[in-house]
Amino acid sequence: MSGEISFDKDDVTKSSIELKIEAASIDTNHEQRDTHLKSSDFLNVEEFPEVTFKSTAIEKTGDKTAKVTGDLSLAGTTKPVTLDVTWNSESPLPWDAKTIKTGFSATAAITGADFGITKLADFGLGPDLLLDVDLEAIKK
Hints:
The chain has one helix at residues 31-38; strands spanning 2-6, 16-22, 50-60, 65-74, 77-93, 96-111, 128-138. By secondary structure, the chain is mainly beta. The protein has a seven-stranded antiparallel beta sheet with strand order 1-2-3-4-5-6-7, with no helix packed on it. The mean pLDDT is 93.
């Protein structure tokens, strides 16, 4: 996973985020299931090796919360998705006071069929999937 976050804690609406995830990195702790999820039935990692998210708008909803809308590209389809985001904290590393880390948690529900993933029910999932993202970033 890689990405960039531009975070303006004084005016979060001026912030932005761009994430890239290697689709083949999926790990459900079951090799056979992972192989199936990487296939054209689901993520189709051969043809679409990256899952990406790029913010297009941010709406502050509370002191440490916001709705982040952006374009999610998954399995060859790009659709707008809104994440409910919480800014968890910002602090220096205990062993390096010059390195500041900030952390976020985000959730969203997506419908697999919206991204061409139609076999979720056959797999015992869906039709909606819950995205749950926790990330930390180092201040530059």
